[in-house]
Amino acid sequence: MNQRVDPLSRLVFELSKLPGVGEKTATRFAYYILNQDAEYATALSRAIEEAKTKIHFCNLCFNLTEETLCQYCSDPRRDSKLICVVERPSDIGSLERSGHFKGRYHVLHGVLSPMDGIGPDAIRAKPLLERLRPTDVESVDEVIFALNPTVESEATVLYLSRLIRPSGIRVTQVAYGLPMGGAIEFSDRHTLARALDHRVEVSSR
Fold this sequence. Notes:
Blueprint: H1 7-15, H2 23-35, H3 38-54, E1 56-57, E2 64-65, E3 79-86, H4 89-98, E4 103-107, H5 125-131, E5 142-145, H6 151-164, E6 170-173, H7 189-197, E7 200-201
Parallel strand pairs: 3-4, 3-5, 5-6
Antiparallel strand pairs: 1-2, 6-7
Helix pairs in contact: 1-2, 4-7
């Protein structure tokens, strides 16, 4: 016979699945929600459901959007010859706040990690390579890798740069100001601005 889980424990359990949220924080969130009026709980539930229903991946760069193309891919003022490759959609917001990048983006949704079974097919690597093929309309001049400074990210940059470089496209990566183990998402706009301004050519090791 299955033991019934009470609603509070279930709420805490679901909230604890959020990244960076442990059981204590989840419990605090749960009590906060329960202490609000019914309208708040309903609004929160509807906001989550609406976001999950309406938001999907951009058909070109895999950013999150309600439209076929995200705001950056559909903006004719953005430089289509410059593509910045990031790991997560949240990284785009951080780079935009720096105010130093006016090109377009490509979201990998992960990095290579053979130990975890994450290979090229598990990230948006193939669509990136397809975007870099020259067309009659436009061609890409430079790809900037703005991935978090980790061993897995370095392996991802090295792998993709070897595939991109033969096409003659310049391959660079942000460098100055981002410490090893740091995260794009949590870096301040001044640090990211310096990292973009001082980007370096990717080594052909």
